[in-house]
């Protein structure tokens, strides 16, 4: 009987807690070589060699907690196990897999066996195919206890600091900075504080959130996050300079600006569930007078009264009827959504008419400096969209095969000849990969029997593995192409079936838009040869832009 060839996936994990686990009373973080990623790799590679297994791939999660199983390296390893790339998972010790008793047990008892994967923990001498599987559960239980104990201790220390009034945020609130003498104490940043005072003054005078945002953006004032990165790291490439309504609301409702430090406001459900939640108000911790206020109590109270009145008006108003194109329009330049504007005009007859139009939301918030209007009238747009839908429906009715062929060619860019050629190549590659796998098994048998030397075995295995991997990679590319082509074919047929129903479309309504249209790109109005023009592109469900 042939011995099973084990293709090993080495899994290494290191968390912040692991790196500091040996720090006792001092404020230092020692280099724990026993758990470092490199040392895990070295130890496990030797273990694989001693057992005569094949080291296939190494998966690494650096900086991830043992209670979190949504780690990229771990998920990648599971996917490879499903594909058959590996059939043995090797860790240094059970805690590297995780510290959640229930989850570890689920993976070792259910998930790994269902994937046909053997599981080995090297230093624990634990093997899912051995006679000591009971120890797996005991070790896992101890690791789970360690995680819970560590979480409790950390929470206790943090809570004590909150009680003592120490600021624990990684970034100071906009308008403040961390004291150079004590990083747990807030001091005023005069530049940012001036902006905060201006925001409160504008709101006190009755200025709407959106107008405050527009004013800040017009003057190119940096947003809170942009300002922090500008002053601390210098790397602002991934941070937006523009202000948003949410940023302004956050400032106007934050008690820190009237001299109150509010802590323990939010937290996680448990040491296993890291979902953030707002805690009951009875658990909040408030400290007054630990830092200087930026706004006076009078200004704060006035602004809170205005904010509350705004909230009440919003809650009491009747829910608006959804506009015809709301959520479907996108600015062709900045790619942000278009906002709805309703304007009313009184005619000479005395009658009042409402006109609905859509404009770029970026322009509304920040003005001309960031983007232009991209304005479009709802009635005009409805006519354009309805005409195009009827045109496509007519084309499908007259010659559906021509429309289908055109769309398939554009979507997949994959003609019949190439498709047939790819299918033939796929069959050949599958046979080749299977043959190479058989050769691998034969090489192991020859090495064990002494038919070939160790050096010859290594050389032949390297060549064989390179050929097998190359074939497997090409196979995956071809299969992806074929899958895309098949999806494209199905999508085209779905679209033609839908659009055909609207040959005699009379009135464009929201139901038709939701059924057919994914989004519409609205370009800016331009004047060409004295005539107003506007580029409007309709992107349909299933097929995208038809043209």
Structure overview:
- The structure is a single chain.
- With about 550 residues, the protein is an alpha/beta fold.
- It has three domains: about 5-165, 3-Layer(aba) Sandwich (Rossmann fold), CATH 3.40.50.1390; about 175-315, Hect, E3 ligase catalytic domain fold; about 320-545, no CATH class.
- Helices cover about 50% and strands about 15% of the residues.
- It contains 17 helices and 18 strands.
- The strands form six sheets. The chain has a five-stranded mixed sheet, sandwiched between helices.
- A hairpin with a 2-residue loop joins strand 16 and strand 17.
Summarize the structure.
The protein is an alpha/beta fold. The protein has helices at about 15-20, 35-50, 70-85, 95, 100-115, 135-165, 190-205, 210-220, 225-230, 245-250, 295-315, 360-365, 380-400, 400-410, 415-450, 455-500, 510-515; strands at about 5-15, 55-60, 90, 120, 125, 175-180, 185-190, 260-265, 265-270, 275-280, 285-290, 330, 340-345, 350-360, 375, 515-530, 530-540, 545. A hairpin with a 3-residue loop joins strand 17 and strand 18.
Straight-line N-to-C gap = 63 Å
Mean pLDDT over the residues: 79
The secondary-structure class comes to: alpha/beta
Total helices: the number is 17
**How many domains comprise the coordinates?**
3
Helix content estimate: 40-55%
Q: How is the largest sheet built, in terms of strand order?
A: 2-1-3-4-5
Topology diagram in text:
Layout: E1 7-14, H1 16-19, H2 37-51, E2 54-62, H3 72-83, E3 88-91, H4 94-97, H5 101-114, E4 118-121, E5 126-127, H6 133-163, E6 176-178, E7 186-188, H7 190-204, H8 209-218, H9 224-232, H10 245-252, E8 260-263, E9 266-268, E10 276-278, E11 285-288, H11 297-316, E12 329-331, E13 338-346, E14 352-360, H12 361-366, E15 376-377, H13 378-398, H14 400-412, H15 416-449, H16 454-500, H17 510-516, E16 517-528, E17 531-540, E18 544-545
Parallel strand pairs: 1-2, 1-3, 3-4, 12-16
Antiparallel strand pairs: 4-5, 6-7, 8-11, 9-10, 13-14, 14-15, 16-17, 17-18
Helix pairs in contact: 5-6, 7-11, 13-14, 14-16, 15-16
